[in-house]
Design a protein that fits this description.
The complex is a heterodimer of chains A (about 160) and B (about 170). Chain A has about 160 residues and is of the alpha+beta class. Chain A contains 4 helices and 5 strands. In chain A, the strands form 2 sheets. Chain A has a 3-stranded antiparallel sheet with strand order 3-4-5, with helices on one face. In chain A, strands 1-2 form a two-stranded antiparallel ribbon. Classes of the chains: A alpha+beta (about 160), B alpha+beta (about 170).
């Protein structure tokens, strides 16, 4: 019977005390182990370290992708403005009859078709009381919902319209 | 229980190995950051120069009453009123604008661009236009050069507008 009781009270750990005295106990992990040597790391510590590392890595990767995307978007925006400027420069010199035909055949230039992702160009003639305007809109595939880029130009006045 | 004094050789080797790996990683991160900073500065400089070029080319084309395009070397010459001429010449790392005014010293302006940026100038008709395209060669097989700037400027636009404003006889 005494043999059985002995086997039920195991000594789990031991550690030197603050003054170098050895302390024997059945709950070794609860002891103050100031001078104890540690071999290896706890699983919790490893998990925390791995989680921190993964979080930092994912942040860096996300930021890198986001920065690249921003650069690309600003380049696309600049190209789209240039495309609208080029088109308006061509259209605003036409007279009203030619403008109607030109708006019907309006298309993105060949260079911009390759430079911008899926560009769509549309144009509207706006006739006010005294002047005629052309409003051009360009859209292309972007992240998120974005308004189309719009540029307006006024037709050059004809000789009859001069005061 | 004997007290441990100092470190064993294995511990020292392990510490040196881990330290070396961390040092290499830190160095590469710093180098990458410096390279990115340099790239960003170059990009900003090029963007500014190209915006200036686009503005000047449009203005010269609008004011011109004639244009001559030479492909080799890439050169555009605009004839302006009062006998002035403006010449744009494409070099490897820059585009040069030379304004020549009769009886005065010529004025030069430089638009710096990296060597990997290719500039092409062509003349288009009906209406007469000048097309300047700047592309960047990414030096990656299978990837076409990326368009950085595309300007189509109408030649003599201001002249035409002025003519329409003149009273008819």
């Amino acid at each position: 019977m005494s043999q059985q009781i002995k086997s039920l009270t195991p000594i789990v750990a031991w550690a030197p005390g603050p003054c170098g005295k050895e302390i024997f106990t059945a709950r070794g992990a609860m002891l103050p182990m100031r001078n104890a040597t540690r071999n290896g790391l706890m699983m919790t510590e490893l998990i925390v370290a791995a989680t921190l590392l993964m979080t930092a890595l994912s942040l860096v990767v996300t930021l890198s992708f986001r920065t690249g995307k921003l650069w690309q978007e600003s380049r696309h925006y600049k190209l789209a403005v240039e495309e609208l400027t080029n088109q308006l420069e061509r259209l605003t010199i036409l007279d009203e009859t030619e403008l109607d035909a030109a708006l019907g055949e309006l298309a993105v230039s060949e260079k911009m078709q390759t430079a911008l992702p899926n560009p769509r160009l549309s144009g509207t003639k706006i006739v006010d009381a005294d002047v005629t305007r052309v409003m051009l809109e360009i859209e292309w595939d972007r992240v998120g919902k974005s308004e189309p880029l719009t540029l307006v130009g006024w037709l050059a006045p004809t000789v009859e319209e001069q005061p | 229980m004997t007290k441990q004094r100092g470190f064993t050789l294995v511990e020292m080797l392990a510490v040196i190995a881990v330290g070396s790996v961390l040092l290499v990683l830190a160095t590469s991160v710093v180098q990458r950051a410096m390279k990115l900073n340099s790239q960003w500065r170059t990009h900003a400089d090029v963007t500014r120069a190209l915006t200036r070029l686009s503005h000047d080319l449009r203005r010269d084309a609008h004011e011109a009453n004639g244009v001559t395009v030479t492909q080799e070397p890439g050169e555009i010459q605009f004839s302006l009123p009062d006998g002035q001429t403006v010449r744009y010449t494409i070099a490897d790392d820059e585009i040069v604008r030379v304004l020549e005014i009769p009886g005065q010293q010529s004025q030069r302006e430089y638009y710096k661009k990296p060597v990997e940026y290719q500039a092409t100038m062509t003349s288009l008709s009906s209406p007469e236009r000048i097309d300047l395209q700047i592309t960047r060669d990414l030096k990656t097989s299978g990837v076409p050069p990326r368009t950085v700037m595309h300007v189509e400027a109408q030649v003599g636009r201001l002249l035409r507008l002025t003519q329409t404003k003149e009273p008819t006889p």
